[in-house]
Amino acid sequence: MSGGARRLFIGGEWVEPDGGHYEVVNPATEGVVGLAPEAGGEQVRAAAAAAREAFAGWSRTTPEERAGILSRAAAVLRRDFAAHAELAQAESGATTATARGMQVAVAVARFERYAKGALEPVETALPPQIHEAGPMGGAGVVGAVAVRRPVGVVTCITSYNNPWANPAGKVAPALAMGNTVVVKPAPQDPLSVYGMAAALEEAGVPPGVVNVVSGTDSAVGEAAVASPDVDMVSFTGSTAVGQRIGEVCGRDMKRQLMELGGKGAAIILDDADLDAAVAGIGTTFSFYSGQICTAPTRVIVQRGVYEQLVDKLAAYAAYVKVGDPVAPGTVVGPVISAAHRDRVEAYVEDGRKEGARVVAGGERPALGKGFYVAPTLLADCTHDMRVVREEIFGPVVVVVPFDADGPEDAEETAIALAADSDYGLIDYVWSGDVARAFRVARRLRAGGVGVNTIARNMEAPFGGFKKSGVGRDVGSYALHAYSELQSLVWPG
């Protein structure tokens, strides 16, 4: 499927890009999916200015008006579901099930969720205070209410691993709260985001409320962050880029929502259900081909079950089918680009040189075309190895064994190993004793912990400790993230 040649979406108009177009490449076939627009710096600033101009009117619309537009956008996306899924698959390399169920379907669900979210109360009544007479005046009762107000213009910089769910998770709650947005999609797969903008336009979003500018040049993202018209930046991506964005935001005190890197620790205690643990950890091989920050990539396993767990993970890696994401039965598709494939392969080679044992994978699949990486399992790892400490963002699992003198020492050792990381997004604990698993989970320095599961509750707050991010979103927490608190106080 071809995405054609797209134009920028600025101020309610589809605009020819100053920098021409660039090719979006299908990671599975290496063919051209379509042509994406390369915005110039002035066009990015014009998009932010359009969002600023539109903010006054949009922020004063009723919650019902905003809810109606978001609901209609969801309906438009659902109507064109098949075409959107086909395009998402072509530009991201996702399998058919992932493109349909985890990309476009999640985007539709998020627009529906925040259509309802626009109607959630924004006021919180506070207990009145009784003031005695004093230098500030006579005695009296003072009432107060805390009200959530929109932040203003939000720049949304999205990740390449999910060109639908990730931008929808930013745009929908931001609009629901009365903000306007400038969306800068990932350069690898921006075409889907333009499809989202077209759906919002059809749903009746006013000009300037949603703007989309893309490009391969880092100057596009930099202009979208630095513009004086921007009040907040919502970013999903690497910690290194997030740190640079944070530096720019700090100069003007721009608000930030950052969902950054992860190196999820999966603690396996010796009383764990190993089959359940392997089913969860194995998703690193299959889900988005490991290109997901929440993956349980760093397995910390008690020595008594170490060899058994490694054998089971190796069998899982050998079982999953690698190949064309369009083909029935494919579980592992390509990674996003040749450059990223080379990066993942370099990490595997580093692990081999550092002494890790390559139990599965380690060689490029013989598929002719496409940016494929074999599901790779590295055992006998130590916690000082780069493959253990750094985010690889591919279908690579590293296993670190540990010894313990008794159950209590096992917990303490596992917690210490998990904590020895710059990251703290989502960790996992597997134990047959649920009380024990929760006891360990409460001590992990991570924004989320899966207890005997990799599942997520999509109303629970999502975000990271340490260098895994700033702030929380998902569910009603996203509405809080895209708002500022204002206190209203009055005499009783």
Count of helical segments? 16
**Amount of beta strand:** 15-25%
What best-fitting shape do the alpha-carbon axes yield?
Answer: globular
* Proper CATH architecture of the largest domain: 3-Layer(aba) Sandwich
What's the total count of β strands? 23
N/C terminus separation? 65 Å
* Overall tally of domains: 2
SS class: alpha/beta
CATH-assigned fold name of the largest domain:
Aldehyde Dehydrogenase, Chain A, domain 1
For the record, what CATH class of the largest domain applies? Answer: Alpha Beta
What is the CA-based Rg, rounded? 24 Å
Classify the helix fraction into a percent range.
25-40%
Low-confidence stretches: none
- Largest beta sheet: what is the strand line-up? 15-16-17-14-13-19-20
Return the average pLDDT rounded to an integer: 96
Write up what this structure looks like.
- The protein is α/β, with parallel strands linked by helices and 492 residues long.
- It folds into 2 domains: 4-260 and 469-491, Aldehyde Dehydrogenase, Chain A, domain 1 (3-Layer(aba) Sandwich), CATH 3.40.605.10; 265-457, Aldehyde Dehydrogenase, Chain A, domain 2.
- It has helices spanning 41-59, 63-79, 81-92, 96-117, 165-176, 191-203, 218-226, 239-252, 274-281, 283-286, 306-319, 338-354, 386-389, 407-419, 434-441, 475-481, and strands at 4-5, 8-10, 13-15, 21-25, 32-37, 123-131, 140-150, 153-157, 180-184, 210-212, 232-236, 255-259, 265-268, 298-302, 357-360, 376-379, 396-402, 423-424, 426-430, 448-451, 465-466, 469-470, 483-491.
- Strands 15-16-17-14-13-19-20 form a 7-stranded mixed β-sheet, sandwiched between helices.
- Helix 1 (41-59) runs parallel beside helix 7 (218-226).
- The relative contact order is 0.13.
